Amino acid sequence: MQPAHFTPETWNRLVASLPNPHLLQTWEWAQVKARYGWTPIPQVWNDVNGQPVAAAMLLKKTIPAGGFAARLSLLYVPKGPLMDWSNAALRARVLDDVQALARRHAAIFVKIDPDVVLGAGVPGREDAREDTNGQAVRSELSRRGWRFSSDQIQFRNTVLLDLTPSEDELLAAMKQKTRYNIRLAQKKGVTVRIGTAADFPVLYKMYAETSLRDGFVIRDQAYYQTVWQIFMASSDPTCEPLVAEVGGEPVAGLFLFRFARRAYYLYGMSRGLHREKMPAYLLQWEAIRRAKAAGCSVYDLWGAPDVFEEADSLWGVFRFKEGLGGRVLRTLGAWDYAPNPFTYRLYTQIIPRLLDVMRARGRMKTKRIYAGNE
């Protein structure tokens, strides 16, 4: 392992060359997090010929407290490290080094959540399958003293849509009701256009309305504008906002991110107005078409339930994504390695209570923002 000194372009090319490259391992995502207290520490592992075989954009946050805690930190590798996780020797080498990094940086823990596949399809259905390599990785992490994290930053499971078929084939693979709703939106006068930075305020307002309606917490507007601006200024990765309108009035939107021939649906927003005209369906169809036209082979619809039951809060959203023809991918999730188990236990006992307070404050703040923009 060696510290990496790259330009944004060379780092992203390296990431794109590795197995399962991910948007959250790009230079641009690290720059977003750098504006919010995280220090990016890129790392690379080379083979005997000096060729990169693994990489990790590691993020470090120092704990802002007095006394001994001033020397402590948190480390996080979002959707990484990137490597061939079926290569046992490489896997051991990378994990050894990541654990050593945690000790060197006096980390309370280091968190990783690579897209190591545990299985595909909904458990219990005929097409579901398990992945033996993923099970082996999970067992190895447990043997090494890693813990399945109580704080899953990213979605553990997701829905992927294969974009390689033709548009007609993509439509045919959708559920009949989804195809019907796409046509209905077109007939009812819903249109979709590419947005600009000028649309940020109305998109955030719709996002705030969505969060209140669906019961999830969002950050303030400045955070999302930072994400959107940084990625829109880049060519690879990049993102573009799509805005669905009825009679020229915005009623729904999404941000379509693209990197390494993969598209991502990170942020979606909608209003209660004109929902009967099904704007979200046409919006996703246009996102699919644009991602395919840009050369993407996979569309990550970003998020599926941990437990595939109707009681899960993500069930309705999952059914919508499944209707688009997507297939469930179940992954390893986030795992923590703690050099000092006592400090880790103390931290994990305190932090959930603090997060509950922060989430409650976030909901109240969003209500104030949304009410003030009515």
List keywords for this structure.
single chain; 9-stranded mixed β-sheet; 7-stranded mixed β-sheet; 374 residues; 40% helix; alpha+beta; 16 strands
Layout of helices and strands, plus pairs?
Blueprint: E1 2-3, H1 8-17, H2 27-34, E2 39-46, E3 52-62, E4 73-77, H3 88-104, E5 107-112, E6 117-120, E7 129-130, H4 132-143, E8 147-148, E9 157-162, H5 167-173, H6 176-187, E10 190-194, H7 200-214, H8 221-232, E11 238-246, E12 249-259, E13 262-270, H9 279-293, E14 298-300, H10 315-323, E15 327-331, E16 335-337, H11 341-372
Parallel strand pairs: 4-5, 13-14
Antiparallel strand pairs: 1-2, 2-3, 3-4, 5-16, 6-7, 6-15, 8-16, 9-14, 9-15, 10-11, 11-12, 12-13
Helix pairs in contact: 2-8, 6-9, 7-11
Query: Topology as H/E string?
Result: EHHEEEHEEEHEEHHEHHEEEHEHEEH
Amount of helix: 25-40%
- Measured between the Cα atoms of the first and last residue, the distance is 53 Å
Strand order of the largest sheet: 7-6-15-9-14-13-12-11-10
Biggest beta sheet summary: 9 strands, mixed
Report mean pLDDT, rounded to a whole number.
Answer: 92
Rg, rounded, reads 21 Å
**Which band does the percent of strand residues land in?**
15-25%
**Helix count, DSSP H or I runs of 4 or more residues:** 11
Low-confidence stretches: none
Helix/sheet category: alpha+beta
Structure notes:
There is one protein chain. The protein is of the alpha+beta class. It has helices at residues 8-17, 27-34, 88-104, 132-143, 167-173, 176-187, 200-214, 221-232, 279-293, 315-323, 341-372, and strands spanning 2-3, 39-46, 52-62, 73-77, 107-112, 117-120, 129-130, 147-148, 157-162, 190-194, 238-246, 249-259, 262-270, 298-300, 327-331, 335-337. It has a 9-stranded mixed β-sheet, with helices on both faces. A 7-stranded mixed β-sheet has the order 1-2-3-4-5-16-8. Helix 2 (27-34) packs antiparallel against helix 8 (221-232), helix 6 crosses helix 9 (279-293) and helix 7 (200-214) packs across helix 11 (341-372). The radius of gyration is 21 Å and the shape is globular. The N and C termini lie far apart (53 Å).
